[in-house]
Amino acid sequence: MLSGQEAQNDPDDAIRATDDDAAASRLSAVTLGYLDDPYTSLLYKPPRMHAGPSAIRKAPLINVGTHHRTAAIDLLVDKFLDQAGPNAQIVSLGAGSDTRYWRLRDKNRQIRRYVEVDFPHITSIKAQRISRSPKLSSRLGPTPSSSSTSAPTASGSSHTDTSTMLPPPAPREKPYTVQKGGTQLVSDTYFLLPLDLRQHPSSTLSEQLLPHLDRTAPVLFLAECVFCYMAPELSADILGWFGRTFNTLAGVIYEMCGLQDTFGQVMRRNLAARHLSLPGAEPFPDIASQAARFVDPSLGEGVFQQSGAKSLWDIRQSVIDPDEITRISKLEFLDEIEELRLVLNHYCVAWGTKSLSSVSL
Hints:
By secondary structure, this protein is an alpha/beta fold. It has 14 helices and 11 strands.
């Protein structure tokens, strides 16, 4: 852990704090009924939780946006898993306090590898919380097989035959190991890796991520509000690396857009007040450019074959089930639909695919 003075002087501290923002927004959405997620409260501990629910409650606009973002990305993940089959691999870049692995386990989705990557400071906290929570750590092992301790009698009832009872099994070893001074956690299917994505892919992804993956199996990578904080050439390197390394691939990113207009400038100023800049947002001012980044010729031929993007407003209008929109509209009073449209049009989900046909919205 960094000391208070060191944390204040660390230029990356503001970027790390964005995970707290996302987790707090998710916890608010869960608490108010927008999302069903029993794991967020285990991985994120808000500083003012003792003050009661009102202390963690976000504005309705934020709760709606969090719902739409989650619904869209969950749908893309499900479409990938439907096509990829049991060898599916997922890599979450800048995963922070994300809970998607556990939610997928609850849905009994087959995943061969699920890898999360973030700063060591973030992964150390997450590894601690996973280790201390039986609800989280128990999901890192293989799915337990069903068993019965009673045998049916001829009449169909059951009884316990104490004469043939086996002694209780020995305590099982933990289904995971914690490594690298507590910053890395590894199990059969779930991997939490401490990496700085701003380093060149040859020294991070090739050397530290790839050993945990099968390059012949389908891969989906997720990057939610990650690339905007990186130099554009670095995010292009990451896209190119994935495209060159895997033959069957999908990528999903969630980013801000439209930052050149009046509302976008307000967003920029608010972030600047928190010592956050957006070097990775400049070359991608709109939804079309976010989709085009996957098929940019500078990445190389055939890195990605198809791409697309939708704003959160478009996702609200054309992707999310109308019954779900009706349900969440009853959770909080929200009368400024034009304001909602303005906000949702400044965030988008983009995707690119290679040798996959239906991973799109």
